[in-house]
Structures are given as C-alpha cells and as structure tokens.
Amino acid sequence: MADLKVNGNFLDFYGINHDFTGIRDVQDSHETVSFCDNSIVRIWHNTQTDNFEEHWHAALEVIMPVENYYDVRVGETFYHVLPGEIVVIPPGDLHELLAPDSGSRFIFMFDISLITKLKSFVGIQSILSQPLYVTKESFPQIYEDVYQLLLQIRNEYFNKNEYAELTIVSLLLTIFTKFGYNHINASNLFPNVRLYKQKEYIQKFNSLMEYIDVHYMEDLNLEDIAESTGFSKYHFSRLFKQYTGFTFCDYLCHRRIKVAEELLARPDLSITEVALQAGFPSISTFNRLFKQYKNCTPSEYRSRNNRALLGGNPYA
User: Of the candidates 257, 221, 255, 259, which has an alpha carbon nearest to the alpha carbon of residue 237?
Assistant: First the structure.
C-alpha cells in the first residue's frame, strides 16, 4: 500500500506528516488535532492495530478502510466499516475506534471552522451534525462521486502538489454540496407531500436555519417559531425533525454549544458572558449542557484549547 502509484507518481504516505511526533494530545476524552503550517487538513495512512478509546476533537474526521474492516462507535451507534465504505464523524462527537489485528485505512482530519461561516453552509449544518455512514446502499445517488472526491483529496495531499490546499478545499466544498443536494432531493424527506410543497418546505426551513444562525442568543421557543413558519406546533415539530434529524430544542442547544466553543477561545470573556452570548438562560444550565455534550466543563475546555493555541502541550 505504501507504494501506491497515482498518475505516474508513487504516493509518499509518511513524508508529508514528518512533523508529527507520534504523541496524541488526549486527556479527559478531548484530543487536540495538530495541523501543520496553518493547513486545514491532515491525512493519515493508518495501519495501527491499537484501539482509540472514546474521545472527541474539533476537527471533522473521515475514515476510509482500504484493507480489512475498521470498527467505529459514535455515541451509541456502532459502524462495522468495510473497504470501500466511509464514515464521517462530525466535530465534537464522542467516538471510539476499534482496529482489527491487521489492515489499513485512510483517516482524514479537516478543520472546517472557516467553511461553516459561509452563508450557504447553514443549509447543510444539520446534515453534518450527525455521523454519516456512506455506502452504495445508504447514499446510492452520490456514493461514487463522494468516494472519488476523497481519493482526489488524498492524492493531492500526498503528492504535495503546488496548489494542493486550494484544490482540497474546493473538493471538500463539492462533497458538502453533494450531501446537501442529496438531502433536499430525497424522496422521503417530506413523505406524502406534493413536490411543489416539498420545495416550499425546503425554502422555509433553510430560511429558518439562517434565522436561528443569527438569533440563537435570543429566547427562541417552539411555539413562536412554529407560528412564524405557518405550522401548528405539532406539525412543525414533525417536519423539523424530518428535515434536520433533531428536535427543535436539541438543534438550538447544539447550535449554542458550537457558538460557545468559539467564544471560549476569547480570553476577554468570562464563562458567564460566554453563556449569555451563546443564548443560555443561566450559567448553571450552560455548565450542565456543555458537560453533557463535551464531557468537560467550559473552564476545562477553555484551558486546554488556550494552551494548544499557544503551541504548547494543552495538558501540561
């Protein structure tokens, strides 16, 4: 596998990651992923037989086995991933990796923090907030395209092409776009709803996601939001779950936690100020929910990430 030849060149699976010391920064389930030279991508050709205990990180992770299976548990969901299959693990999700006695796989790490700022990204925010198990059966319309795009990203990365970073970002955006269109074109997105109504619902919910993205810090409640969209509370709740995979309250909490993660990087804000600016009604609610989602307190999260930004060991 280390001698894979692409476009007449042998891919060097190890040289580009020469800066990696081999030591993972993990404590209390949180891993700090190191990106080299302000890059947003790190790809590993992984042949390890060691397991990775439950952990989370701020990077988006993509796993592609090429020889033998690889077992992945995200939350309470278990995936037995075979060669040719793909698992996408969202940033911040607790997950465990279980390796077989032999085999290899590619592990992609992406820092998508800047990409999430793009206005259009809000339409697929909910899709990438949950694990994606990409197979020919689960994503028949886009599987082959996504698989080939990931191979192109891999080849750009290991070939160290002149414009590799720009090309990789372009390819990654294409992958996100394909997931987005696949989602809104799914025949079962709004079952038993006429086609012209489905388009109307998609526009409504995309507008709503943009609204939440701007007004998350306000007192948003289910009744008012449902009324603003023209649906009854019951009908809205059902449609919102179909469109996003979340209940309205769970999605709002998820969005606020993501905002809090960014605000915690600002040393000028107290934990209480972070809680209020992220939209949480009280510091106790913020601490409880943050601990539930991230498996650490807001103060612990801030301490680790600030040390990482300074370039030192976040757990020293």
Answer: 221
Percentage of the chain beyond pLDDT 90 is: 57
Average pLDDT over the chain, rounded to an integer:
88
Beta-carbon contacts of 76 under 8 Å, excluding residues fewer than 6 positions away, are: none
- Which amino acid would we find at residue 253? C
Of the candidates 248, 170, 164, 154, the one whose C-alpha atom is nearest the C-alpha of residue 209 is 248
d(CA 88, CA 108): 9
How is residue 22 written in tokens?
């081999």
Check: CB of residue 41 under 8 Å from CB of residue 62.
Answer: no
Q: Which residues pair with 87 in a beta bridge?
A: 63, 133
Global pTM reads 0.82
Tokens standing for residue 239: 């449609």
Half-sphere exposure of 300 (CA within 13 A, CB side): 13
For residue 199, pLDDT over 90 is answered with no
Q: Of 21, 23, 2, whose CA–CA distance to 13 is shortest?
A: 2
pLDDT at residue 316, rounded to an integer = 31
Per-residue confidence band for 7, with pLDDT thresholds at 50, 70 and 90: low
**Token pair recorded at residue 12:** 């060097």
